[in-house]
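New to this. Help decode the following:
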Amino acid sequence: MTTVIWIAVALVLVGLYLSWTAGRLDRLHARIDAARAALDAQLLRRASVAQELATAGVFDPAASMVLHQAAHAARLAEDEHREVAESELSQALRVVLAEPAQVRALREAPGGSGTTEELLAAVRRVPMARRFHNDAVRAARAVRRHRTVRWFRLAGHAPFPLAFEMDDEPPAALTE
């Protein structure tokens, strides 16, 4: 009789552990979804401000065209091409805002100060949002690598989380 009790206790403990692990994995996946939504919002904000700057008439036509095309491509990119499009927008921002004189001219333009500050905020928030997303992905991957999670299929049908890798270095002249 005591053997049956010990087996029942062991099964209950294993069940509790599996339930806790599945719940933890579910919370990590929810955290990834929330972090991805925040990252998408910051990327969209950055592209919108960049597009607004491109059409403001502050830059020469070539620079405006490069910035507008990169921002437009980043806004409309499909998920599988999003990292490349966002990296290209970062590169376009660095090219267009390479010189401190260009940033000063932008700030001195009518309404340019607010737009410049908005762009600076967006450029600073993108790396933070990407870091939060990638940290959540890293944590979920660590849990999903455990044998217990794989053997008992505790991840269910959730897709394997993927990190968002892009060039998010801000323009040096803008952050000075």
About this structure: Helices lie at 2-54, 61-76, 82-96, 100-108, 112-144, 147-151, 172-175. The chain has a mean pLDDT of 93.
